[in-house]
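Comment thread on ticket #2218

A.B. wrote:
> Attaching the input chain for the structure job we discussed in standup.
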Amino acid sequence: MKIMEIPGYRYPGAKPFESADTNLFFGRERDVASLMAYAQINPITVLHGKSGIGKTSLAHICSAKLATEHQADVCYIRFGTYISSAVDQTPLQKVILSLLHKVPAASELSKIQSRLPNLDFSLWHALKKREFSREANQGYLVLVFDQFEELFTYPSESIDAFASELGRIIAAAAPKEYENLAITNPETLSAKSWNALLSPPKIHILLLIRSDRLHLLNDISQYLPTVSNNSSGLDHYPRSKHGKL
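C.D. wrote:
> Ran it. Output below, let me know if you need it in another format.
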């Protein structure tokens, strides 16, 4: 029998810890507490460290705790390395599709879809559709971008399109189209729904990136000017009673 097939085995090897492995993950309590504190205070956090040091595992465990203790809604996203293809999706499209996966198509927001045809390319709208579909007692959304350095393998125009939309979310700037429609056709939605739609998304964004690729964030700093201010670095591998993992 392979080691990975042993139930509850302490070390997953190259495979990262998953959310279900919370009871097996220890030796990084301080890192977990620190990252959870960041997630509850800042709209965006950058977690950086060497390749293989455990960024993904830490994100999985923290996300599981946030989901359990704060009823957070967690969405994991990986862009994958860019491959030139006529059918290759842009980073923005991949994020929107991930957000809307398993989200019911019919919602109150569908009432404004025909009036604002560009909503298919709006990250704000995708976040709001997911937010409207969440249960009343569910908390904020945690959006985890694993191996964020992959974004920078895409064409510059695709990077800019995604980063500008993400910057809008961080700046809590609702699309002007919403505001205009709320003025010209207020009957389209209820006052409560308009207020929810125009309010900042309840979200925390976690970017996982290799330390040797951290400088790439400068390429999107015009859209995310504070992205480098909220960073947490992993500079050691986790340890247990038996030594280094």
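A.B. wrote:
> Thanks. Noting for the ticket: DSSP finds seven helices and seven strands in the chain.
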